[in-house]
Amino acid sequence: AEMEDVGRRLRALRKRAARRQSRPRQRSRGWRCAPASSTCMVVLVYSGGVAEVAAEFAQGRGWWKGRRALAGSADELREIAVEVEQAYDTLPLVQIAALHGDPVKAGLVSEPQMLAIIRWVVERSLYTWTEEQNTVHGVAPSRAQLVERALSAIPPLAPDAWLRWGLRLGKLKPRNRISVAEKQSKAMAYFQWVNAASAAAPAHRPPLLINMDETALVRHPSGLAGTVLKVPAGKPILGDPSSLGERRSHITYLASITHDAEVQLRLPQVLIGNERQFSAAMMRSLPTLPANDAWRRGKAASEAGSISTVQWLEILVAGIQAVLPATDWEEAFAAVGAVAEQSRLGRRLCDALEWQQVPTAPDGLPSVEAARMIFPKNMKVNLEALLHQEMETLKQRRAALKRQSKDAAKDQKLLAAKRQRLLKAR
Q: pTM for the complete prediction?
């Protein structure tokens, strides 16, 4: 029994030695693969033919877990890159075609090796891109930007089997602690009011709905979390270049949006700032448009930065002019039930209100108690007077429609009587 056990161990040692001899000889024990190996050739093809990238893969950069992603010496990297190029040049055409086709089907690499190669190529592309963003542009990319970059960095030759995942890193939006029943009551009161207001308008003059909202625009956004390179001590990287004034300076943007595309071009878009931000000299230097007005009052600290206020305003105006006219606001108004009597309510709103089918809003104006739910709790609005005015307008509209209906019926009778007289005359 002992002799049989010794024999088994000897045979296992011989097989292990034979496998080691059949593998390509590597210069260093820490290398991931030999420069002439088929794995390294696949990396060369999937990196776009950059021999230095394949050399880094052969060195094992970014391979060992728990170790820093340090590169070898430049001389060693160039030497390995030369060996990679020479190995590729000596390959037969059949193997080159297999490398550019499907290396897994050709038997050059296994599926786990292929997946590891694609993952390494994407990770290295992310590293170099992040290094450029940190050191050249002074920007720390967010995780969502990294994911978007990673999806675009997947080699075009990668098999479709590795492209089936569509997940991304992101944040969950905060949710207000309002019961579903209260949300439904608020929505139904709003729908009832907007439908009544639309019904009170003349048929040839549909109501124009305008949404006005304000938001704060910072001169220089900062403090955004992102991806930053780990660098050795004493080697600082370029930070986010900005002054304290730029990071504290804000203006207010009051946006006006309507569902009518023609009217949207004429609605005012207001930027509100103090006299330090919008100085009199700066206002005089701006190109003027008809009917532009400016109000100035002094209340804020001054700001200074590498980009002038005029340039900053030009960027803001260009962004506003590019977004507002190009957006289908009529569809957006219909999705929230402001137009079309909730016949095109968006799926997103229906899910928030837990409606499988959109209920029909009651006719007429909402009650004072229901209308009060539309406005903020601490907002002082004389709803009784407002609803009374709306009710009078609605009554006048209904009376006018009734008169028009009577006049139309009277005209029809007169026309029918005239036809009868003409027929008798013949």
A: 0.47
